[in-house]
User: Fold uroporphyrinogen-III C-methyltransferase from Pacificibacter maritimus.
Amino acid sequence: MEESTLTLPNENWPSIEAGWVWLCGAGPGDPGLMTLHAVNALRQADVIVYDALVAPEILDWARPEAEKIYAGKRGGKPSAKQVDISLTLVDLAQQGKRVLRLKGGDPFVFGRGGEEAQTLIQHGVPVRIVPGISAGIGGLAYAGIPVTHRDVNQAVTFVTGHDQTGEATKTLDWDALSRSSGVLVIYMGMKHAPSIRAGLMGAGRAADEPVAIVSQATTPNQKVLETTLGQMLDDIAKTEMGPPAIICVGRAVLMRQVLDWQALMRGEQPRNLDPLGRGKPAEVRD
Ligand code: SAH
Assistant:
């Protein structure tokens, strides 16, 4: 079978102009989850300012002469301050460079992309935003967990496990969240997993409520822990689930018993074709 060659002709695709910053999502890890706009930007940028969560293979698509600046903020390595990152972007743009700011997942989802874009615009630097696949949606999909399902939830809530100071988020109203949302998707939740669990159980979520923890989602090192609210802390301690990880709370997690497509690709059988116990095929609706 002959394959088509995908080209992104710059006459029809937007080019980064000198002095512009493109703020692009790189997706959760698998380079194939980048958008075409982001790939197109990588091929043009003079300078790429990237985060810790951007997969190294992605940077290989840059022009060989492009300057790559690491602006990561992960524990262990020296952290760049947010103000320094934002002002670096302003400075590079004002030097007339074509700047690509590449962030993990989606830049506007718990990624401070809004702050960076605001700083750029306040300094008169023109910006283009390229959304990305967020870990809380795409990462869970790679684990076989749909964030919505008609038989499970009519709402999904994205929550951050810690606030700007790194402490457990104090402004979260766990009672309201628990009541309003069948499925909760928690970013940056591992450090404060005990208080998240306490908040949810204190608000009446059951100890046997399904929970999944997906670490390094969409990468070759992806790990998935299926557990329950009651058991999660013990199970996290037993398994080596390091960051970055997404915590998903709710019955959507049960769908993995049928939708773990990566297990099916390895030749395993589905564990349970009807994990919600509907008793009829999925295509038959009420
Ligand atoms: N803007 C990003 C989120 C940045 S906050 C996005 O839209 O995905 C960082 C948090 O994102 C991590 O603590 C973790 O909760 C989550 N995360 C990012 N990449 C991940 C991955 N590959 N696997 C699991 N969680 C991930």
